[in-house]
Amino acid sequence: MNTNASASNDASSSPGSTRVALVTGASRGIGAEIAARLAADGFAVVVNYAGEVASAEALVAKISEAGAKALAVQADVRAPNEVRRLFEAAESAFGGVDVLVNNAGIMSLSPIAETDDATFDRQIAVNLKGSFNTMREAAKRLRRGGRIINLSSSVVGLLQPTYAAYAATKAGVEAMTKILAKELRGREIAVNAVAPGPTATDLFMKAKSAEVVERLAKLAPLERLGQPEDIARVVSFLAGPDASWVNGQVLRANGGII
Ligand code: NDP
């Protein structure tokens, strides 16, 4: 695991004084927008990534230029030891973690009859086990008053053909969200999920024709694709003071698609 700190501020000078958010899969797409938004909200931000080091470091540089603290940390959420080191890197740079955003995810679509074992296992490993790995560390380490925000998907409600394996991972994430909210009783930590609808990122656009994208964009009554900013705003709300009474919930942010 490489730990690349490009923060303009001396993060270690005042450990614990700034609220700290750790965003998994923040090198691009929704996660990058969430990291930028939480930094603008005043959080010191850990930008986790799997492989896209250049994008993660560019985001850290952008956040640092705007005067906030950020740190890029490579870690594969599938691996429990890498997730532990991710939290340790956050703690040693910023003194602790207050908010975990479980955003890292992958999606492969195919009918069940045509889904091979590797495709199924890969989605379980990243989306479900990866979320479990980070939630387990967060449950042990998050400071009092913290928040855990998991990325689910509106496909858990839509249940379209070809989404079985992916939707199953997100249904599991929703179940763990509600259970962990109860397990953290007494710690003043809220656990919620955001379930976006179709959102304009690589994950959604990959392998879809312009026609399919257009059709899916029109499904919601608001008749457009979600943008990463639409989701980052919801995460910002759940991470902030106005959501202090929201716990164990799944918030679908999808233009009304379901
Ligand atoms: P993108 O494909 O744009 O980005 C995925 C991010 O996850 C990247 O930063 C990638 O890192 C990271 N990642 C992938 N695998 C791992 C891993 N093993 N360990 C650590 N990081 C990893 O996806 P989106 O932004 O679209 O999706 C973000 C989340 O939102 C996902 O959980 C997705 O399921 C969910 N979602 C997305 C929707 C959409 O329409 N886009 C709709 C509903 C939910 P790197 O680039 O460094 O490899």
For the structure shown, list the relevant keywords.
44% helix, 8 strands, binds NADPH dihydro-nicotinamide-adenine-dinucleotide phosphate, alpha/beta, disordered N terminus, 258 residues, eight-stranded mixed sheet, globular, 15% strand, Rossmann fold, 9 helices
Structural class: alpha/beta
Average predicted local confidence, pLDDT: 94
The CATH class designation is: Alpha Beta
Main-sheet strand order equals 1-4-3-2-5-6-7-8
How far apart the termini lie comes to 40 Å
State the share of residues found in helices, binned by percent: 40-55%
Radius of gyration (CA) equals: 17 Å
| CATH-level-4 superfamily name | NAD(P)-binding Rossmann-like Domain
| Sheet of most strands | 8 strands, mixed
Q: Give the total of beta strands.
A: 8
> Which ligands accompany this protein?
NADPH dihydro-nicotinamide-adenine-dinucleotide phosphate
CATH topology: Rossmann fold
Outline: globular
Tally of domains: 1
What does this entry look like structurally?
With 258 residues, the protein is of the alpha/beta class. It has a single domain, classed as 3-Layer(aba) Sandwich (Rossmann fold). 44% of the residues lie in helices and 15% in strands. It contains nine helices and eight strands. An eight-stranded mixed β-sheet has the order 1-4-3-2-5-6-7-8, with helices on both faces. Strand 3, helix 2 and strand 4 form a beta-alpha-beta unit. Helix 1 packs across helix 9 and helix 3 packs parallel to helix 4. The longest helix has 25 residues. The radius of gyration is 17 Å and the shape is globular. The chain binds NADPH dihydro-nicotinamide-adenine-dinucleotide phosphate (NDP). NADPH dihydro-nicotinamide-adenine-dinucleotide phosphate binds next to helix 1, strand 3, helix 4 and helix 7.
